[in-house]
Write a structure and sequence with these properties.
The structure is a homodimer. Chain A is of the alpha/beta class. Chain A folds into three domains: about 5-135 and about 305-325, NAD(P)-binding Rossmann-like Domain (Rossmann fold), CATH 3.40.50; about 140-300, Dihydrodipicolinate Reductase, domain 2, CATH 3.30.360.10; about 345-425, ACT domain (Alpha-Beta Plaits). Chain A contains 14 helices and 17 strands. Chain A has helices at about 15-25, 25-35, 65-70, 85-95, 105-120, 140-145, 160-170, 175-185, 195, 200-215, 235-240, 305-325, 360-370, 400-415, and strands at about 5-10, 35-45, 60, 75-80, 100-105, 125-130, 150-160, 225, 245-255, 260-270, 280-290, 290-300, 345-355, 375-385, 390-395, 400, 415-425. In chain A, helix 4 (about 85-95) links the parallel strand 4 and strand 5 (about 100-105). In chain A, helix 5 runs parallel beside helix 10 and helix 13 (about 360-370) packs antiparallel against helix 14 (about 400-415). Chain A is elongated and about 80 Å long. The termini of chain A are far apart. Chains A and B meet through helix 2, helix 6, strand 12 and helix 12 of A and helix 2, helix 6, strand 12 and helix 12 of B.
Chain lengths: ~425, ~425
């Protein structure tokens, strides 16, 4: 008789049902792989009467978290509630009770990962979170184990499928509102899409990746995020004409011993590995001193891919339990600070509406020059003859966020400038 | 004082020197990560006087394998000799002596992996081989651990950088001989390139991947390999006109409970994930029932990437040694046979030189029809007016290798057919 390992679930929504389905359907095969049987003991849900896509044995469901957190027969807690609270408190309570924890919660890990991992170490239990970033893509395990010989120099990632779907649609000519509605219709975007479209979700995931990659404690509050809501379909057309595509890129790198990073829409050249990541797919490109470049590409969300990551973590925990050991994730042992957003540099794309009159470009160029921003190219695009308004697209050489912010304030104040509807960072 | 783990190297060529360099330069950081210090005790080389890119402490080098294999202070043996023998015997000797083994040897693992893994289990030691497939891409660990919740349905891979470099050059208009010379000049191809250009190397790697993916014992002899030496620059031009690119694809899949697989040049559509894998890069696309698609892309060879994989394995071994446990790799517990090559199906591209005379196409079409091969499209390409020879390119619908082999023999025997210089499989 193989040893049984008791598992308790907090949450049985899309991902939870997917993971439970795998555990029930593949029980025997997983048992053979890990040398123990994963036995689901309790499942916390809000509404036990709600129909679910997985048939659970009767008596498993409960609405009382203590049935999971305080049951000594539950050795591993799988947290799939999402959101900061009560998820964080439940995870902490489970660890303190000597239970291992597997979570898909990017917000809790991004904001409180270091504390929770220390708590896990103090209680000699495992805390795994592969499913918190990029669903079915094994990026956490890759950073923790497979790239141990590398100094990771840079991360560039598309780690929010909702926005990548919307941007792919916009690249095909739709406007933002229309693309968002399509994403909501297909279940890629929530009714309240703010966390995704404002870049908050991607910033959580980037903080988790940067913390592992750079061996430093990077929090979401260290990383500025800019959303996609102000992008216009015409920016995609102009970008395409210049050989670029627009993606919401989460990036971080080491530069002169400091960590730099942000989440924002970016013009990347059409030959870039991330340019061909379409629809709701995710991809992460890593630069390491040994591996050069490594890209992982796959499904970043959905029941199947996320359940794959949750069950892989469960098997890692179970394998450790069988052998009586625990893995530690060491966090933040490097003294590396995060550079402030104003100091970050890139090239920039501006789209401006200006009065169609001689001397306008000279005035804008002078402001940019005053702030030591060099212009790489200027294109005068469509002009509305009757309104005497011209559209200018300007690409700059590398400049800092602060330089650009200051220059933009002055440019916006010029009487010849009607509006600067877009400014987008461009791959260096 | 952290525990020291003694490491012995068999071989200190490009990869060995790369791994030794990492171990010496990053000693402290790796030690902190694994809770033990990896101490290099002996290094077997052919010529101790040869200059090496890494500065080793004096006294480490030896030309006697027993200095590594019989030294009780060596707990882990890193085998980087390559080739079948004596590498296989040394690995077996090390395992029997209770030593853990890390190897980059695809030939030994592909041909003898199951026996060696059983030997490792019998002696309660680890045998790891991440570096044997795709260099810096962590595909072995991904299959072994990260995708445990999945039934893997299919693998499609570019896992030979030499041939992918040559094919990329041919796609840019070079002919085979010229592209091969360039690959040799850059160090991507060996003086005797047969193992690479004939697909042997890719078949070794595919056997290793299929064994893990399908939980069955797949040997290289189960997998037919076709090389790239008969491809002509004009095939690349015709392929491009039709929206395809030519790649050496190593693929395997489950179909009706049997394993199918082969290594051969293939026309894949330009939108396929593998189509944009250029130069010496490698990529592996996996289909799993939970994850849908996952692609891993990176450097498949070279000192840095391969050393990254070797050192990751060493750290896994060391971490296990510290905790007094060993990982098992279970092989071949599924009863799944490999379908014979003749039964494999795909679409086909033929390029034929025929006498330019009415009725020729009808005769060829009749032969194909007799073998129940349907034609999807026919294009008459360049014609040599003086020689009265025309070039025909025919694309078929799905047919089996056997059907095509039999039809081709008859077509070649037609008096109106001068030659069939190319036939290439096409992505289904």
């Amino acid at each position: 008789m193989p040893r049984e390992i008791g598992v308790g679930f907090l949450g049985a929504g899309v991902v939870g049902s997917g993971a439970l389905d795998v555990l029930l359907r593949k029980r025997e095969r997983l048992g053979a792989a890990i040398g123990a049987e994963l036995a689901v003991r309790r499942v916390l849900v809000r509404d036990p009467g709600k129909p679910r896509p997985v048939a659970l044995p009767p008596g498993l469901l409960t609405t009382d978290p203590s049935d999971v957190l305080e049951d000594p027969a539950v050795e591993v807690v799988v947290e799939l509630l999402g959101g900061e609270e009560p998820a964080r408190s439940y995870i902490a309570a489970a660890l303190k009770a000597g239970k291992h924890v597997v979570t898909a919660n990017k917000e809790v890990i991004a904001k409180h990962g270091a504390e929770l991992l220390r708590l896990a170490a103090a209680h000699d239990v495992n805390l795994f979170y592969e499913a918190s970033v990029a669903g079915g893509i094994p990026i956490i395990d890759t950073l923790r184990h497979d790239l141990v010989a590398n100094e990771i120099l840079a991360i560039q990632a598309i780690i929010n499928g909702t926005t990548n779907f919307i941007l792919t649609e916009m690249g095909a000519g739709r406007d933002y509102a229309e693309a968002l509605r399509e994403a909501q219709r297909l279940g890629y975007a929530e009714a309240d899409p703010r966390n995704d479209v404002e870049g908050v979700d991607a910033a959580y995931k980037l903080a988790i990746l940067a913390t592992l990659a750079f061996h430093a404690d990077v929090r979401p509050s260290d990383l500025v995020h800019v959303g996609i809501t102000r992008l216009a379909a015409r920016d995609f057309r102009y970008a395409a004409e210049m050989g670029y595509t627009v993606k919401l890129v989460a990036w971080a790198r080491l530069a002169d011993g400091k960590i730099e990073g942000a989440v924002y829409p970016m013009l990347i050249s059409q030959g870039h590995q991330l340019a061909s990541v379409r629809g709701s797919f995710n991809a992460i490109v890593l630069d390491g001193d040994q591996i050069d470049k490594l890209m992982l590409y796959g499904r970043g969300a959905g029941a199947g891919p996320t359940a794959s990551a949750v069950v892989a973590d469960l098997c890692r925990v179970a394998h450790n339990v069988v052998r009586g050991v625990a893995d530690r994730v060491a966090i933040g042992n490097r003294d590396r600070s995060v550079r402030s957003f104003g100091e970050l540099t890139s090239r920039f794309y501006f789209r401006m509406q200006v009065i169609d009159r001689p001397g306008v470009l000279a005035r804008i160029a002078r402001v940019l020059g005053d702030h030591r921003i060099s212009i790489a190219s200027v294109i005068q695009k469509e002009t509305d003859e009757t309104a005497r308004v011209a559209e200018l697209v300007i690409m700059t050489h590398v400049a800092s966020e602060r330089q650009v912010e200051e220059a933009l304030a002055e440019i916006r104040a010029l009487d010849v400038v009607r509006d600067v509807p877009s400014f987008i960072r461009v791959e260096r």
